UniProtKB/TrEMBL annotation:
Protein's name according to its UniProt entry: Ribonuclease 3
GO cellular component, one term: cytoplasm
Species this protein is from: Bergeyella porcorum
Localization annotation: Cytoplasm
Function: Digests double-stranded RNA. Involved in the processing of primary rRNA transcript to yield the immediate precursors to the large and small rRNAs (23S and 16S). Processes some mRNAs, and tRNAs when they are encoded in the rRNA operon. Processes pre-crRNA and tracrRNA of type II CRISPR loci if present in the organism.
Keyword Hydrolase: yes
Source organism phylogeny: Bacteria, Pseudomonadati, Bacteroidota, Flavobacteriia, Flavobacteriales
Length: 251
């Protein structure tokens, strides 16, 4: 009881020493992770964008660290949760969780960009939300330790019920088509061309299987165009035969 009173008094004294901005950041992070943070400077760095950093102290180094912590945490979780699944299935599940699109979604839901002082005024990359999420993980790890960071990740930021939603989600239609074509021993190729219209550059990609055009799609990048074309080809082919294996043991 005495220890609890001392800790509460210590937290209040420490909060009084924080600037208004740091106090707001500390409060937001603590509510988000349901845990009192210790070193506000780590979180300040985690939400400092590269363009606004003076000494190179921005989120990028913490993002690098957070990426590793996230990967190891998810790998351990999947290994324990799916004891009968093979390496292929575990790899696919991990990819669905840690891929950039999903991390961006998590970062958006947590409204992490709003925690950056320059978040509302800078021109931001399309992956900034996911990058800041990984930087936050890096900061939590350095501030509170590995076990506490794992606990926060799996209970607050990436709870099991959210991870289960990704189980039947397809992370890459290109990967699915490639695996299917190899099993069926058919030729799969992408014909992707750069297109120019009114000074605007786009990419058109068509999926060909055994010399037959299956689908086409146009997007702002080659990668996006091929993935969308693969998605359309998947739905076209899936009407005729079962492409996606449902069993995790056969993945």
């Amino acid at each position: 009881m005495e220890l609890r009173k001392y800790f509460s008094k210590f937290i209040k004294q420490r909060r009084k020493k924080l600037s208004e901005k740091d106090l707001a950041l500390s409060t937001n992070i603590s509510k988000m992770i349901a845990q009192e943070i210790k070193d506000i400077s780590l979180y300040r760095q985690a939400f400092t964008l590269k363009a606004s950093s003076k000494k190179g102290e921005n989120y990028e180094r913490l993002e690098f660290l957070g990426d590793s912590i996230l990967g190891s945490t998810i790998s351990c979780y999947l290994f324990k949760t799916y004891p009968d699944a093979n390496e292929g299935y575990l790899t696919q599940m991990k990819s669905k969780i840690v891929n950039r699109k999903n991390l961006n979604k998590i970062g958006d839901n947590l409204k992490l960009v709003q925690l950056s002082p320059a978040g509302n005024t800078s021109v931001l990359s399309e992956n900034i939300s996911g990058n800041l999420f990984e930087a936050l993980i890096g900061a939590i790890y350095l501030d509170l330790g590995y076990e506490t960071c794992q606990d926060i990740l799996l209970k607050k930021l990436l709870p099991p019920q959210e991870l289960l939603k990704l189980e039947n989600k397809i992370a890459s239609y290109k990967s699915i088509l490639l695996e299917w074509s190899q099993k069926k021993k058919v030729e799969l190729r992408y014909d992707t061309q750069e297109e120019h219209q009114n000074k605007h550059i786009s990419f058109k990609s068509c999926v060909w299987i055994d010399g037959k055009k299956i689908s086409c799609a146009t997007e702002s990048s080659k990668k996006k165009a091929e993935e969308k074309a693969a998605q359309r080809a998947f739905y076209t082919l899936n009407k005729k035969e079962h492409i996606l294996e449902k069993s995790k043991l056969d993945s």
